[in-house]
Specification:
Layout: E1 2-6, H1 10-21, E2 25-29, H2 33-40, H3 51-60, E3 64-67, H4 71-75, E4 79-82, H5 98-108, E5 115-119, H6 127-138, E6 144-148, H7 158-163, E7 168-171, H8 175-184, H9 186-190, E8 195-198, H10 200-231, H11 235-243, H12 264-277, H13 283-306, E9 315-319, H14 335-344, E10 348-352, H15 357-360, E11 367-369, H16 373-377, E12 382-385, H17 390-393, H18 397-403, E13 408-411, H19 418-423, E14 427-429
Parallel strand pairs: 1-2, 1-4, 2-3, 4-5, 5-6, 7-8, 9-10, 9-12, 10-11, 12-13, 13-14
């Protein structure tokens, strides 16, 4: 089938490359001509494991192409996906739909034969109705169907998630559109992936509901971690115990410094805003948003306490800047709150991240960026682990101890074993687990 992807951001590029790998003919569209040229040359604008090779191979097989002008591709398309940004509006926390609406108007003016217009962007419930109305206004005679097909991609494992999803949700009651969507996802259908057809509004709300629920699980286990620290319990054992309950599940029960990224912060705010607009306030989701922001600040307080109550004049080594491992995404990363708070308390920061430093330089001030973890640690008064990159898990602990002025590690991701830290003589502070002090 012939597919057009409007938008070459995270969702658009990953989805376009994966559809091409399914055997479809995909054209990805972006108005930035310079970006298009780079993509044609295989230059990926963000880090996602495996994506560079996937794009390159499908370009070679002539299944994936890039263009700044959508006209020809849209006219010949069976399906046109809208995969543009829906950032949070600064004035009220709602989703900014201007890019979605602009794309819809453009598409309406280009379609010839029956076309399925698929909203892949994360949008509030009812957006599909607005998109259809906009397009009907532009093209009263247009032969098209507007469909909701939310994405559930995790940064760092997006290609796997696209090709091995728990489910595919398609919101439409148009039979012709259903057939097109079945054909697009046929490789998954043959693998017995559940493809759930719903009403359009149901599909839109399912995306927000899923992200809000996962954000709630993260926030819940973070608060349990606080209680564990006061009572002497171990949050990892608590999480393991409750995760064995099939009604709860094991995923998203890892205590840490709070959630960030492109989805959870934005989507929880948008869902709460939508609920208030419909007169059904979501107090749990609103509490999650507040608790998550407060948690990031409390992590800075935790670091200060672990360093003796004052960090004025100290140099702290920070490992990890991105909101999670295997991505270069700095959006709403806990480090963006924690590091400035530590600086306000008088600390100097030396940081290292395998992928996030280029973006971080535009977001954080007065931070020294190191070339490797040990360059950041050398001569620091304490080490703070903020992101759980795998390469940090296997660092030589004896070398770390020698490099630090004081054997103090504050591990906000629980990547080390308290028992091992005790063996190496660290004053070790983690999340929701007993503090390990330096052995005499």
């Amino acid at each position: 089938m012939k597919v057009v992807m409007i938008g070459t951001g995270y969702v658009g590029l990953v989805s376009g490359a994966c559809f091409a790998d399914f055997g479809h003919e995909v054209t990805c569209i972006d108005k930035d001509a310079q970006k298009i040229e780079k993509l044609r040359n295989g230059e990926i604008p963000f880090f996602e494991p495996g994506l560079e090779n996937l794009v390159a191979s499908n370009i070679r097989w002539n299944r994936l192409s890039f263009d700044a002008d959508p006209t020809k591709a849209v006219r010949n398309a069976d399906a046109v996906f809208i995969a543009v940004g829906t950032p949070t509006r600064s004035d009220d926390g709602s989703a900014d739909l201007s890019y979605v609406e602009g794309a819809a108007r453009e598409i309406a003016g280009m379609i010839d034969a029956f076309t399925v217009v698929v909203n892949k962007s994360t949008v509030p419930v009812g957006t599909g109705d607005k998109v259809e109305a906009l397009m009907r206004n532009e093209r009263p005679d247009g032969d098209f169907a507007v469909v909701s097909n939310p994405e559930f991609l995790r940064e760092g494992s997006a290609i796997y998630d696209f090709k091995h999803p728990d489910r595919v949700i398609v919101g439409t009651d148009n039979e012709q559109a259903m057939e097109v969507m079945r054909e697009l996802y046929r490789p998954l259908y043959l693998n017995e992936t559940p493809i759930l057809f719903t009403k359009r509004r149901t599909a839109e709300l399912a995306k927000y509901a899923a992200n809000a629920f996962l954000a709630t699980k993260i926030t819940f286990i973070n608060e349990i971690a606080d209680l564990c620290e006061e009572t002497g319990a171990d949050v990892q054992q608590v999480a393991h115990a409750i995760g064995m309950d099939g009604r709860i599940g094991r995923k998203f029960l890892h205590a840490g410094p709070g959630f960030g990224g492109s989805c959870f912060p934005k989507d929880t705010l948008a869902l709460a805003k939508t609920a208030n607009q419909y007169g059904t306030p979501m107090e749990i989701v609103e509490a999650v948003v507040r608790a998550n922001e407060q948690r990031k600040l409390r992590m800075a307080e935790k670091v200060i306490k672990a360093c003796g109550g004052s960090i004025a004049g100290m140099r702290l080594a920070v490992l990890g800047l991105t909101f999670k491992q295997n991505t270069d995404d700095m959006r709403d990363a806990p480090s963006l709150t924690i590091i400035p708070a530590l600086q306000r308390a008088g600390a100097k920061i030396t940081a290292y991240d395998p992928q996030g430093m280029a973006a971080a330089k535009n977001l954080l001030q007065d931070v020294v960026y190191a070339d490797d973890p040990f360059a950041a640690i050398d001569g620091a008064d304490a080490l703070v682990v903020v992101t759980e990159w795998d390469q940090f898990r296997a660092l030589d602990l004896s070398r770390i101890k020698k490099a630090l002025k004081k054997p103090v590690i504050i591990d906000l991701r629980n990547i080390y074993s308290p028992e091992e830290m005790a063996t190496h003589g660290f004053h070790y502070v983690s999340i929701g687990r007993p503090t390990i002090n330096v052995k005499a």
